Amino acid sequence: MRRPCRSPLSPGHHGRRNRVRCCRRRRALPRRDGPRELRRASVRPDRRTGQRVSGRPEVLFVCRHNSGRSQIAAGLMRARFGDVVTVLSGGIEPADAVNPHGAAALLARGIDIRHQLPRRVTDDELRTAAVVVTLVDGIELPRHDGVRHERWILPDPAQWSAVEILPLVDDIEHRVSDLATRV
Protein backbone atom coordinates (compact mmCIF):
# COMPACT_ATOMS: atom_id res chain seq x y z
CA MET A 1 0.00 0.00 0.00
CA ARG A 2 1.27 3.48 -0.90
CA ARG A 3 1.83 6.09 1.73
CA PRO A 4 -0.28 9.21 1.34
CA CYS A 5 1.31 12.43 0.24
CA ARG A 6 2.65 14.55 3.10
CA SER A 7 2.39 17.80 1.19
CA PRO A 8 0.68 20.68 3.04
CA LEU A 9 -1.43 21.34 -0.07
CA SER A 10 -5.01 20.18 -0.33
CA PRO A 11 -5.63 16.47 -0.99
CA GLY A 12 -6.51 17.07 -4.63
CA HIS A 13 -3.37 19.05 -5.45
CA HIS A 14 -1.88 16.53 -7.84
CA GLY A 15 -2.34 18.66 -10.95
CA ARG A 16 -0.10 18.54 -13.98
CA ARG A 17 2.54 20.79 -12.43
CA ASN A 18 2.87 19.06 -9.09
CA ARG A 19 2.82 15.42 -10.13
CA VAL A 20 6.50 14.77 -9.69
CA ARG A 21 7.77 17.66 -7.60
CA CYS A 22 5.49 17.59 -4.61
CA CYS A 23 5.40 14.07 -3.30
CA ARG A 24 7.28 11.51 -5.36
CA ARG A 25 4.02 10.11 -6.49
CA ARG A 26 5.35 9.28 -9.91
CA ARG A 27 2.40 9.09 -12.21
CA ALA A 28 2.98 8.97 -15.92
CA LEU A 29 2.70 12.36 -17.54
CA PRO A 30 0.04 12.67 -20.24
CA ARG A 31 1.15 11.41 -23.60
CA ARG A 32 1.44 13.98 -26.36
CA ASP A 33 0.98 12.69 -29.86
CA GLY A 34 3.01 13.83 -32.82
CA PRO A 35 6.57 14.95 -33.30
CA ARG A 36 8.01 17.69 -31.10
CA GLU A 37 8.03 20.26 -33.91
CA LEU A 38 4.29 19.92 -34.45
CA ARG A 39 3.52 20.10 -30.72
CA ARG A 40 5.61 23.25 -30.44
CA ALA A 41 3.85 24.76 -33.45
CA SER A 42 0.37 24.41 -31.99
CA VAL A 43 -2.04 27.22 -32.75
CA ARG A 44 -2.46 29.65 -29.87
CA PRO A 45 -3.93 33.14 -29.46
CA ASP A 46 -1.55 36.09 -29.71
CA ARG A 47 -1.41 38.10 -26.48
CA ARG A 48 -1.55 41.50 -28.15
CA THR A 49 -4.08 40.98 -30.94
CA GLY A 50 -6.07 37.97 -29.74
CA GLN A 51 -5.79 36.37 -33.19
CA ARG A 52 -4.81 32.71 -33.49
CA VAL A 53 -1.13 32.36 -34.42
CA SER A 54 0.92 29.27 -35.14
CA GLY A 55 4.54 28.96 -34.13
CA ARG A 56 5.52 28.27 -37.76
CA PRO A 57 6.28 30.90 -40.39
CA GLU A 58 3.54 31.49 -42.97
CA VAL A 59 4.23 31.36 -46.70
CA LEU A 60 1.57 32.94 -48.93
CA PHE A 61 1.44 32.21 -52.66
CA VAL A 62 -0.49 34.78 -54.71
CA CYS A 63 -1.47 34.76 -58.39
CA ARG A 64 -4.29 36.26 -60.37
CA HIS A 65 -6.94 33.51 -60.30
CA ASN A 66 -5.62 31.16 -57.57
CA SER A 67 -6.39 28.16 -59.75
CA GLY A 68 -3.08 27.07 -61.26
CA ARG A 69 0.34 28.37 -60.27
CA SER A 70 -0.41 29.34 -56.68
CA GLN A 71 -2.38 26.14 -56.00
CA ILE A 72 0.46 24.00 -57.43
CA ALA A 73 3.07 25.87 -55.37
CA ALA A 74 0.98 25.67 -52.20
CA GLY A 75 0.31 21.96 -52.73
CA LEU A 76 4.00 21.19 -53.22
CA MET A 77 5.07 23.31 -50.24
CA ARG A 78 2.39 21.80 -47.99
CA ALA A 79 3.27 18.24 -49.00
CA ARG A 80 7.05 18.62 -48.69
CA PHE A 81 7.45 21.18 -45.90
CA GLY A 82 4.03 21.46 -44.24
CA ASP A 83 5.45 20.33 -40.90
CA VAL A 84 7.72 23.40 -40.64
CA VAL A 85 5.71 26.14 -42.41
CA THR A 86 2.08 27.15 -42.68
CA VAL A 87 1.07 27.40 -46.34
CA LEU A 88 -1.63 29.69 -47.75
CA SER A 89 -2.62 30.63 -51.27
CA GLY A 90 -4.91 33.25 -52.71
CA GLY A 91 -5.75 35.24 -55.78
CA ILE A 92 -6.72 38.76 -56.77
CA GLU A 93 -9.62 37.59 -59.00
CA PRO A 94 -10.40 34.00 -57.87
CA ALA A 95 -11.57 31.51 -60.49
CA ASP A 96 -14.36 28.98 -59.99
CA ALA A 97 -12.19 25.84 -59.69
CA VAL A 98 -8.62 24.58 -59.58
CA ASN A 99 -6.95 23.90 -62.94
CA PRO A 100 -7.68 20.19 -63.58
CA HIS A 101 -4.41 19.61 -65.46
CA GLY A 102 -2.36 21.07 -62.61
CA ALA A 103 -4.30 18.95 -60.11
CA ALA A 104 -3.69 15.86 -62.26
CA ALA A 105 0.05 16.59 -62.50
CA LEU A 106 0.29 16.83 -58.70
CA LEU A 107 -1.92 13.78 -58.21
CA ALA A 108 0.60 11.79 -60.27
CA ARG A 109 3.19 12.84 -57.64
CA GLY A 110 0.94 11.75 -54.79
CA ILE A 111 -0.35 15.23 -53.88
CA ASP A 112 -4.09 15.82 -54.04
CA ILE A 113 -5.22 19.44 -54.49
CA ARG A 114 -8.54 18.65 -56.19
CA HIS A 115 -10.47 19.58 -53.03
CA GLN A 116 -8.90 23.07 -52.84
CA LEU A 117 -11.04 26.05 -53.81
CA PRO A 118 -9.69 29.28 -55.29
CA ARG A 119 -10.16 32.18 -52.90
CA ARG A 120 -9.35 35.85 -52.56
CA VAL A 121 -6.21 36.85 -50.66
CA THR A 122 -6.92 39.01 -47.59
CA ASP A 123 -5.00 41.94 -46.15
CA ASP A 124 -4.61 40.09 -42.84
CA GLU A 125 -2.84 37.24 -44.63
CA LEU A 126 -0.54 39.72 -46.37
CA ARG A 127 0.23 41.32 -43.01
CA THR A 128 0.93 38.12 -41.01
CA ALA A 129 2.84 36.09 -43.60
CA ALA A 130 6.59 35.74 -43.25
CA VAL A 131 7.01 35.43 -47.03
CA VAL A 132 4.62 36.50 -49.80
CA VAL A 133 5.41 34.95 -53.18
CA THR A 134 3.77 36.58 -56.19
CA LEU A 135 3.68 34.17 -59.13
CA VAL A 136 2.65 36.58 -61.87
CA ASP A 137 3.79 39.96 -63.13
CA GLY A 138 1.44 42.92 -62.99
CA ILE A 139 0.10 42.46 -59.46
CA GLU A 140 1.06 45.07 -56.89
CA LEU A 141 0.33 43.99 -53.33
CA PRO A 142 0.46 46.20 -50.24
CA ARG A 143 3.77 45.93 -48.39
CA HIS A 144 3.92 45.48 -44.61
CA ASP A 145 6.87 45.70 -42.23
CA GLY A 146 8.59 42.39 -41.54
CA VAL A 147 7.11 40.62 -44.59
CA ARG A 148 9.53 39.45 -47.26
CA HIS A 149 8.21 39.61 -50.83
CA GLU A 150 9.41 37.46 -53.70
CA ARG A 151 8.29 37.55 -57.33
CA TRP A 152 8.38 34.44 -59.49
CA ILE A 153 7.35 35.30 -63.05
CA LEU A 154 5.71 32.11 -64.34
CA PRO A 155 3.54 31.63 -67.44
CA ASP A 156 -0.19 31.07 -67.06
CA PRO A 157 -1.03 27.35 -67.51
CA ALA A 158 -4.79 27.93 -67.88
CA GLN A 159 -4.97 26.71 -71.50
CA TRP A 160 -2.19 24.12 -71.32
CA SER A 161 -2.59 20.37 -71.66
CA ALA A 162 -1.57 17.89 -68.96
CA VAL A 163 1.72 17.18 -70.76
CA GLU A 164 2.59 20.86 -71.29
CA ILE A 165 2.16 21.66 -67.60
CA LEU A 166 4.72 19.10 -66.33
CA PRO A 167 7.84 21.29 -66.89
CA LEU A 168 6.11 24.14 -65.03
CA VAL A 169 5.40 21.84 -62.08
CA ASP A 170 9.06 20.77 -62.05
CA ASP A 171 10.18 24.42 -62.08
CA ILE A 172 7.79 25.31 -59.24
CA GLU A 173 8.99 22.31 -57.23
CA HIS A 174 12.62 23.46 -57.48
CA ARG A 175 11.68 27.00 -56.48
CA VAL A 176 9.60 25.75 -53.52
CA SER A 177 12.52 23.61 -52.28
CA ASP A 178 14.84 26.59 -52.52
CA LEU A 179 12.35 28.82 -50.70
CA ALA A 180 11.93 26.30 -47.89
CA THR A 181 15.65 26.44 -47.12
CA ARG A 182 15.46 30.25 -46.78
CA VAL A 183 12.31 30.58 -44.66
Structure description:
By secondary structure, the chain is an alpha/beta fold. The chain has a domain at 55-182: Response regulator (Rossmann fold, 3-Layer(aba) Sandwich), CATH 3.40.50. 27% of the residues lie in helices and 13% in strands. The protein is built from five helices and six strands. The strands form two sheets. Strands 4-3-5-6 form a four-stranded parallel β-sheet. The chain has a two-stranded antiparallel sheet with strand order 1-2. It is globular, with a radius of gyration of 23 Å. Residues 58-103 form the Rhodanese domain. Keywords: Arsenical resistance. This is Rhodanese domain-containing protein.
Report the major sheet. Answer: 4 strands, parallel
Annotation field: number of helices: 5
* Class of secondary structure makeup: alpha/beta
Q: How are the strands ordered across the major sheet?
A: 4-3-5-6
**Which topology of the domain at 55-182 does CATH recognise?**
Rossmann fold
CATH architecture of the domain at 55-182: 3-Layer(aba) Sandwich
Encode the helix/strand succession as letters: HEEEHEHHEEH
Report the mean per-residue pLDDT as an integer: 81
For the record, what is the CATH homologous superfamily label of the domain at 55-182? Response regulator
Distance between the termini: 56 Å
Fraction in helix: 25-40%
CATH class of the domain at 55-182: Alpha Beta
